Amino acid sequence: MPWLEWHKRDDDLKATAKTPYRLLQPIQSLSHGDEDAPNMLIQGDNLEALKALLPYYAGQVKCIFIDPPYNTKSAFEHYDDNLEHAQWLSMMYPRMVLLRELLAEDGSIWITLDDNEAHYFKVMCDEIFGRRSFVATVCWESRYSRSSDTSLSLSHNFLFVYAKNAEKWKSVRNKLPRSQAQAAQYKNPDNDPRGPWRAIPFDAPEVRANLEYPITTPTGKIRKPPQGRHWARTEEQWLQLVDAGLAYFGKSGDGAPSFKQFLSEAPEIVPNTWWEHEDAGHTDEAQKEGKLLFGASTFATPKPERLMKRIIHIASQPGELVLDSFLGSGTTAAVAHKMGRRWIGIEMGEHARTYCQPRLAKVIDGEQGG
Ligand SMILES: C[S@@+](CC[C@H](N)C(=O)[O-])C[C@H]1O[C@@H](n2cnc3c(N)ncnc32)[C@H](O)[C@@H]1O
Q1: Ligand 1 pocket: which of 283, 348, 353 to mutate (most atoms <8 Å of CB)?
Q2: Most CB atoms closer than 10 Å: which of 82, 148, 214, 323?
Q3: Ligand 1 centre and the CA of 137: distance in Å?
Q4: What confidence tens digit (pLDDT) does each residue in 289-327 have?
Q5: All structural domains of the chain with their residue ranges
């Protein structure tokens, strides 16, 4: 299998094993709420912290989200985002190995990045997780405005999704509720007492000789599948739809056969890989959420709570464990708590105390913003 080569790669492959096991030191004065709650905010370098968690949590984390420094060559107020390219890969490699070990058999890991490192990181992660564990790359519309001082204005961040076992994960991941815009596609032009509905075409691609039976419209017209297509279900199933009053032939009453799908019965939707800001929030919104919590002294690069809600909803159930080892201002832990998940957050900066701890204390006390 091809792999990515970088300076000191051989040392980095051994870094996880060489990291010493250290004990976590509880700080009672910073603890808040129920002492027996299973949640943990850890201040420290995540390489050591993840290794310290390994004996207790290996194979137990259902959803990992990380938003590591993107290597934008910026010096943010709370952390530096300016590593030499190979050093950034050296930093990420052993941490990803540990995160994989912490992941549950039916767990998933979500990583945000941008063009600075994303494509190198993807090749590195394919090696660590195996290409069969790669689920998809989500494009999140992180920005809706356009900047005029660049050749192509950047609108998105990448969200890489890996699962420990992609096949297993498919059967446990949650679908999404329909958004208001999606629900608005259901109308009720004939005042059907069963409520708003949508016409689902009854034909499907490709010719299938056994699914080409004639369908008679209410005005007596005979309909056959369009050229190169077949009916989506058997004749018996079509007649069941007719009996249930679900058959629809368009406004004219003798158009192409379709059937009614009612909003009240429409299943939730499978998440896709294009996440618009209307559904998943955007960077401006995250800044505003920060201002509400912290006043003028905001954190530079937070993620919006709506983005985290979406990821945590898809990837976990209430009571399951969510981990973020690049916690920043504490968004993942805050949203996980509001959603009834257990959580562990790791942040090395002093903002673990000045942002994360006060933010999470507010959430424990019932803060419901974001
Ligand atoms: C982009 S920010 C995360 C922002 C976060 N998603 C939020 O909503 O606020 C990345 C964070 O990773 C932290 N970080 C960087 N290297 C780390 C390390 N080795 N161990 C722990 N935290 C680290 C930085 O201090 C920074 O706060």
Answers
A1: 348
A2: 323
A3: 21
A4: 999 988 877 888 899 999 999 999 999 999 999 999 999
A5: 9-21+37-145+152-177+270-364, 186-265
